[in-house]
Amino acid sequence: MKRFLGFLKAGTLLAALLMAAAGTGYAQMEARTLDMTGMVGSFFFDNDDVYDDDNPIYTFGLGYLFTRNLGAEFTANFVDTKKLENGEPYDNLVEFIYKIDLLYHFMPDNQWVPYVALGGGATTINEAREDKTGGLADAGFGVKYFFSEGFAFRIDARYNYAFDDESHNFNVSAGLTYVLGVPFMK
Questions:
Q1: Would you say residue 8 has pLDDT above 80?
Q2: Model pLDDT for residues 38-95, shown as the tens digit of each residue
Q3: Which residue of 19, 70, 79, 134 is surrounded by the most CB atoms within 10 Å?
Q4: Where does residue 167 rank: exposed (0-12), middle (13-18), buried (19+ CB within 10 A)?
Q5: Are 52 and 80 in contact (CB under 8 A)?
């Protein structure tokens, strides 16, 4: 939990600095547009005595902007981890997280576009050759830096609450977002 609070403080400071330095630029935050995102990062389990604490997360997302500020995003996440026994890894695990989030973008006309996210979905973990699925809720924040008309570098931090085992998990990711050109569904 201390590591989570440290990342939360650092992320909040980073977002505040980026908003302070925000300027106008290449932002492509247009209503009725689609985007694709690919990210990699780290996933931190709440119960790090049960799961390894060095877990890569891979994310693919599809987003849609209803307005210049409000959008929705479907993400599919893959976490590769190990289960621990007496502090030693003994079983490889694969976790899939699939969710839908609402994103609210602040300052959509700027090159730096901070946002907050709130949503939910499900998680499936393959444990002992058996799939266990449960619901989850998530909340987070991030920033997109548009370095060209349709491309943005993105940093994202999310808190994930898993209902089945009541765990408080956290992930940070970075990657690229590509805005798919012209408005969709005019």
A1: no
A2: 999 999 988 766 777 778 999 999 999 999 999 999 999 999 888 777 777 777 788 8
A3: 79
A4: middle
A5: no
**Extents of the domains making up the chain:** 2-179
pTM: 0.80
Q: In whole angstroms, what separates CA 135 from the centre of its chain?
A: 16
Write down the CATH number for the domain with range 2-179.
Answer: 2.40.160.20
Q: Is 32 exposed, middle or buried (0-12, 13-18, 19+ CB in 10 A)?
A: middle
* Distance between CA atoms of residues 1 and 147, nearest Å: 34
Nearest residue to 48 (alpha-carbon basis) of 10, 93, 96, 83: 83
The structure tokens listed for 12 are 């909040």
